Amino acid sequence: MNLQSPSALPHLPTAGNLASLPLTSMSKKALAHLKNADPVLASLIDTVGPCRLKPDRTQTAFEALVEAVCHQQLTGKAAQTILGRVKALHPHRPFPAPDDLLGTPDDTLRGAGLSRAKVAAVKDISAKTLEGIVPAPDALDELEDAEIIERLTTIRGVGQWTVEMLLIFKLGRMDVLPVDDFGVRKGFMLTYRKRDLPKASVLLKHGERWRPYRSIASWYMWRAADLAKAQG
């Protein structure tokens, strides 16, 4: 995001909330590469165990972005309540379509609990979906990470962090390093015994050794932060 709260995409940035899946040949190859490239990360991998990151592809990019906006700066419970009210405005389908949201009066969306800024954001997401700026699932799969970020960050209320979370946790892209994410920065500080949170430039430079599996390395940074929190 630009930098929004980690609660803006529910169940995504915190590794403890991730679903698990059996190790694949790809994940085995990724772990071997990361352990060979970075001995410190190798120690963390040995402590945490295999990465069991499973992308959730049940939502379209449109739906994920609308949900992300609803969650900005709110607790998960409050955001889900508001999102439920927005969905209830269009009971004829499980999730409102772009045309549905564009045709809903602003005051009605405000009555469901969305702020003026969020109303403007969800309508911009809807408009840009109809324009093709937010691609359909098949088209999205054909785009490079950088192009997806460039496209989606033109949307009101959607920053780079939001798109990076979508790339990792919805699309399963393997080489994304969200350098502005607090959990990644905190995990890096703890893992590499730094006194302060690293600057983005430091993370980017160190992350070069993790290519092309920077998403998995990021998952381990989140786990490092989780472990430290659990240990008090």
Report on the structure:
- With 232 residues, the protein is mainly α.
- The chain has helices spanning 25-37, 39-48, 61-71, 76-88, 98-103, 106-111, 116-131, 137-141, 145-152, 160-169, 182-191, 200-207, 214-230.
- Helix 1 crosses helix 2, helix 2 packs across helix 13 and helix 11 packs across helix 13.
- The longest helix has 17 residues, at 214-230.
- It is elongated, with a radius of gyration of 18 Å.
- Residues 1-23 have low confidence and may be disordered.
Describe, in short, the structure shown.
By secondary structure, this protein is mainly alpha-helical. It has helices spanning 25-37, 39-48, 61-71, 76-88, 98-103, 106-111, 116-131, 137-141, 145-152, 160-169, 182-191, 200-207, 214-230.
Strand content: under 5%
> What would you report as the Rg, rounded to the nearest angstrom?
18 Å
- Overall mean pLDDT stands at 88
How many distinct domains? 2
| Class derived from helix and strand content | mainly alpha
Distance between the amino and carboxyl termini: 28 Å
The level-1 CATH class of the largest domain: Mainly Alpha
How many DSSP H or I helices?
13
Largest sheet: none
CATH-defined topology of the largest domain:
Endonuclease III, domain 1
Which architecture name of the largest domain does CATH use?
Orthogonal Bundle
* SSE string: HHHHHHHHHHHHH
The CATH superfamily title of the largest domain = Hypothetical protein, domain 2
Helical content (DSSP H or I, runs of 4+): 55-70%
**Low-confidence runs of at least 5 consecutive residues:** 1-23
> How many beta-strand segments?
0
